[in-house]
Amino acid sequence: MPRIEENARDENFWHAIAERYDMAPGPVNLENGYFGRMTRGVAQDYQRNIDFINRNNSVHVRQQFDGPQNIEIRNQLAGMLGVAHASIALTRCASDALQSLIGNYKNLQPGDQLLISDLEYPSVESAMRWVAQHRGLEIIEIVHQHPATHDALVASYREAFERHPRIKLMALTHVTHRTGLVLPVQAIVEAANAHGVDVVLDGAHALGQIEFDLPALGVAFAGYNLHKWVGGPLTLGFMYIDPRRLADIAPDMGSQRYPEPDIRTRAPYGTVNIAAWLTLPKVLQEHKALGGARAKGERLNYLRELWVSEARKMPGVEVLTPDDPRLQCAISALRFTGLEDQKPMADRLLEDYNLFTVVRDGSACGSCIRITVGLSTSLDDINRLIRALRELSCNPL
Fold first, then answer.
1. Is residue 38 in some structural domain?
2. Which domain range does residue 348 map to?
C-alpha cells in the first residue's frame, strides 16, 4: 500500500476506498459531519455482533463483555490515543460525556464564573447554563470576531481571563459544528491553565480527521465521538479525564457501580450498545490501516480546498471558514451575501442540483450553509457543487 498521507490527490486510490462504502441512490451527501458511514466490512462485523449478542444475550454480556472484553476494548482505544486506559470511560456519544463532566465538576462555589463562546454545541452550552443557574454562578460569553484568525482567537480568551478573574471552568470546542472552524486548542488551554481555569474540551468533530496529541493539549477533561470520522457505528463515544484530576469530577448521579477511584463511575450509567462496542476493534484496525487522522485529514482538506478556492472567487458568495490551514478541516461553511436566511439556498442546492447540505445558525457570523466532504466524496461531486454555487451566485433568490 502506498503512503496514503502523501497521496491525497491519488484518485484511483481514493476511488477504491470509496468503493468500501455502500450508498443508497439519492442526493449527493455533503453533510458528512452529522455522523460517518461505516465501511462495508465494519457494517458486516456490526451485524454479526448484533446477531451474536441477540443469540447469547446476558450469558455472554455478564460473563465476558462486562469484564475482560470491555476492558480490552477500552485498552485498544486508549492505545490509539496514547493515554492510560484508566483515563477513558465509554459513553454513547460526546454529548453524554461532556454533560456529565460539566454537571459533576466539583470545584465551583457560588459567585464563580463559567466561560462559553458563540461556537459551543447546544448541549454543551445548555449544560453550562444549567450548572450556572443551579449553583449560583455567572455565565461569561464571548463572541469571536469574524473572520477569525489564529491570534485573535487566542487573544479573545486571554482577554476574557484577565477581565473576569473569577472564571473557574470553561467550555472549548475543538471544531465548531457551525462552520468547521478549528480552534487553536493548545494555545488557549495554556492561557487557561495560567489563569487557573479548567477546560472541558468538546472533541466531537476532531477525532479521526485532525491529528493531535491528547496529553500534549493540556486538557484535563474531554468528550469525543467515535461515530463521526473514526468510522464506528452510532452510539460510540467516550469521556477522557486526566487520572490526576479524577477527584475533581464527582461520580455521575452518585454512581457506585465501580469503586470510587474508577473513571467509569463518572460516565452515565445504562445499558450500552454492546454490539457496537464489540465492533470497535474492527473500526480501529481499519482507521489505522488507512493512515489514521493524518491520511483522512489530508484527503478531506484537499477536497475541501477544491470547492472553497473556487467559491471564494464567486460574487455574492462568502466562505466563512478561514484559509489558515491551522483553522480548517473537512467542514466548511458559506453564505450567499444579502440573504439573512440561508435555508432557501440550501433548498435550491437540493432541489435543483441534488446536493444535500445543512443550514446552521447561532454564531456571530449568522446563518450559513455547512458543507462537509467525506471519504466517499468524488471529484464529480465537487465539480457539481462548484457548478451549483457558480450558477446560484449569479441567480440568487
1. no
2. 4-30+292-394
Domain count across the chain? 2
Beta pairing partners, 238? 90, 224
In this structure, the answer to whether residues 13 and 54 fall within a common structural domain is no
Which residue has 484577565 as its cell numbers? Answer: 162
Least confident of 100-104, 115-119, 145-149: 145-149
Nearest to 78 by CA among 298, 263, 291, 274: 263
> How many Cβ atoms are within 10 Å of 188's Cβ, its own excluded?
24
Domain for residue 40, yes or no? no
Helix (H) or strand (E) holding 371: strand 368-372
CB half-sphere exposure, 337, CA atoms < 13 A: 10
268 with 296, same domain? no
pLDDT at residue 394, as a whole number: 85
- Residue-wise pLDDT for 321-363, tens only, equals 999 999 999 999 999 998 999 999 999 999 999 999 999 986 7
For residues 257 and 323, membership in a common domain is answered with: no
What stretches of the chain show up as alpha helix (H) in DSSP?
11-18, 40-60, 70-81, 94-103, 122-135, 150-163, 185-194, 214-217, 274-290, 292-311, 343-353, 379-394
Residue 187 falls inside a structural domain: yes
Does residue 42 sit within a domain?
Answer: no
Whether residue 178 contacts residue 368, with contact meaning beta carbons closer than 8 Å, is answered with yes
- pLDDT value at residue 270: 83
User: Does the pTM of the predicted model rise above 0.90?
Assistant: yes
C-alpha cell at position 172: 472549548
Query: Do 375 and 278 reside in the same domain of the chain?
Result: no
Grid coordinates given for 298 = 489530508
∠ CA 96-98-103, nearest 5°, is 95
Q: Do 189 and 155 reside in the same domain of the chain?
A: yes
**Cα angle 33-263-213, degrees, rounded to a multiple of 5:** 50
CATH number at residue 107: 3.40.640.10
**Residues with Cβ < 8 Å from 366, sequence gap 6 or more?**
335, 340
176 by Cβ neighbours in 10 Å (0-12 / 13-18 / 19+) ranks as: buried
Is 145 in the same domain as 214?
Answer: yes
Whether residues 353 and 216 share a domain: the answer is no
Sheet with strand 138-142: strands edge to edge: 88-91, 237-241, 221-225, 198-202, 167-173, 113-117, 138-142
